[in-house]
Amino acid sequence: MRSFYSIILFFSLSAGLVAQPIIDQSNFISVGDVFEYTQILDLTPDQIDVLPEGGEDLTWDFSTLPPVGIELTDSYYPLDSTPELFGLFFGNPFLAGQNLSTFALELAVLVFELPLPLEVEEAYQFYRSDAEGYFITGNAAEVEGLPLISAYDTLDRVFSFPLSFGDMDTNSFYFFTDVPSIGAVGQSGLRSTNADAWGELILPGSSYNCLRVRTELDVTDTIYIAFTETGTQIERPQQINYTWISPEVGGIVAEAIVLQDALVSFRYLTNETALSSTEITDADFKIYPNPGSTTMEISVPSGFEGHFRILDLTGREVKGGRLASSNSVDIATLPEGIYLVSVYNAKTVLTKRLVVSR
């Protein structure tokens, strides 16, 4: 979401009121975003009331929500921080075509609903954010040690941009993917969205000017087992999501999920990583030794969350990844010359020159 976090809190000079939020590519999820949520599953009607169904300049007061729950983190990675084959496919316009993506969401678990034990690792969902909207383009994971890429045949348009109060949209999505030696999995569905309300959302310790989007999601899963030559279609109950989007934060600050008229889950932003992560200056960012020959250390203050990349003078990225507590980078394979080393997150981009010499 970030170029980040453009603050779109417009104030009416005549009335002094907060204006309707408008969501577009510039103030929604983008590469490098990290959002931490608390998810609550045991809810009572007095804690969360998603009503009224729609309206303007509303107030949703969820300030009494308990501070404990399941901790969730949504991390949106550059394509080159995913396994090489995944990034190569979804980041190459010639290979990806309509599935060309801008970043990937790391998934804690990717479940293939097969009656067989499968070891699934390195699971990601891929997205494209552009002037037309926010799309799911595909999924990828290491299944039984082998890469499995599932590209959507019909993209899932989560939101159409620009998005403002009163906007409605409906689109279908579909994919069907072979799972070698096992069978195939697929999914089809219909997503209908309605930006039905805007106003102030009050959470424990924070409040936001938000656009709320009501989404109706009808999904059918398809499973085919090769050795039995049997297939099954599973029609899920309709899922209704209420999603509160803040242009100030640049993403989703709360989301309620309703199944069969029952509120089953609510998650809300508890750590505004994109806004509250440590800001750094050029003096805080150090690389050493410089000149270097075999390894390079990247030093940033504790609390700075982001990524790094190394570019040659043609602008080609030769190294990159997520910053950790210890950032030792192997540069032994880089030819001698001058390179540009950048660290970045939603709020900061800093660059220094590196000389590789032997």
Provide structural commentary:
The protein has about 350 residues and is mainly beta. It has two domains: about 25-275, no CATH class; about 280-355, Immunoglobulin-like, CATH 2.60.40. It has helices at about 85-90, 95, 275; strands spanning about 35-40, 55-60, 70-75, 105, 120-130, 135-145, 145-160, 170-180, 185-205, 205-225, 230-235, 240-245, 250-260, 260-270, 285-290, 295-300, 305-310, 315-320, 330, 335-345, 350-355. The longest helix is centred in the N-terminal third of the chain and has 8 residues, at about 85-90. About 35% of the residues are buried. The model is unreliable at about 1-15, about 110-115 and about 275 (pLDDT under 50).
What's the structural blueprint in terms of helices and strands?
Blueprint: E1 34-40, E2 55-61, E3 70-77, H1 84-91, H2 93-96, E4 103-106, E5 120-130, E6 133-143, E7 146-160, E8 168-179, E9 183-203, E10 206-225, E11 230-235, E12 239-246, E13 251-259, E14 262-271, H3 273-276, E15 286-288, E16 295-299, E17 307-311, E18 317-322, E19 328-330, E20 337-344, E21 349-356
- Using only CA atoms, what is the Rg? 22 Å
Structural class: mainly beta
Number of alpha- plus pi-helical segments: 3
Mean pLDDT across the residues is 84
What percent of the residues sit in helical stretches (DSSP H or I)?
under 10%
| H/E topology pattern | EEEHHEEEEEEEEEEEHEEEEEEE
In total, the number of domains comes to 2
CA-CA gap between termini: 40 Å
Please state roughly what percent of the residues sit in beta strands, choosing from under 5%, 5-15%, 15-25%, 25-35%, 35-45% or over 45%: over 45%
In terms of per-residue confidence, which ranges show pLDDT below 50 for 5 or more consecutive residues? 1-17, 110-115, 273-277
Query: What is the number of strand segments?
Result: 21
How would you describe the oligomerization state of the chains in this entry? Answer: single chain
Largest sheet, in brief, is:
14 strands, mixed
* Silhouette: globular
